[in-house]
Specification:
The protein is mainly β. It is 13% helix and 37% strand. The strands form three sheets. Strands 1, 2, 3, 4, 6, 7, 8, 10 and 17 form a nine-stranded mixed sheet that branches. It has a six-stranded antiparallel sheet with strand order 13-12-11-14-15-16. Strands 5-9 form a two-stranded antiparallel ribbon.
Length: 254
Amino acid sequence: MTEEDPIADLIVETWGGCTLPVGPLGGRGGTAFLYNELVESTPDEDRVREWLLTADVLTRSEVGEVRLRPELIQPAGAAADHLAVLEFEQGWSRAAKVALMRSTLLHEHAERKGWSWSTQQVTDGVAARSEHLRGLGGEPHTAYALGHVTTEPGTPGEPRPLAIATSGVTRDPDRVVRWAGALPDGFTGAPVFIAQHRAGREFVMLCIGLIADGDRNPTVVTFDTIRKLIDRQGAGPTLGLRDRLAGLLRRKDV
């Protein structure tokens, strides 16, 4: 963990509302986060598709759990503390250790229940592209992961506080990007950020990808790979349309 780090503070302030605790119901939990894919930009508006991204390993369960963070719910106290999702495994698209689904179902659930989300997202401009990742090599680059800590896996109602961890990321000889060392339980699926320095004291923040497993020195699946998975999903409705994906998941309210 890190303390008194201005970059860590910036990450929490800017993207602390993009994450949700997820995982198998009653199993070892992890983290998912919201990503806005830019579909079209015009002088009048940006058209986006919003995705929920996490690690494949967290989605291999018939019944899953999505924690509804109280600080992201408007009005306050309007929602239960978690959502149990039936047919959880069938709702995701997967490749290269990543799982994704459209976030439409989360918004539809909130609308049906009379409340709304107050979230942040990793935007397309922040998500790293191939040219941003070329500089990752064998020398560690300081990185930050934003996840929800698990202290008592599977315990009903277990607190899953947001936390930030810092270490280094490297690209090994097999071209795999890895987080150096271990991460707290619950960080599988978490987004990973770096500060890429420019001339002088300027820097730009980038989300390079997500933590794909719970191993020591876990794999970081980078956004160039994630974008390829998203591209394979094909053209679909964008946020702002009254899209309805009934039947993709059956949801049990708790």
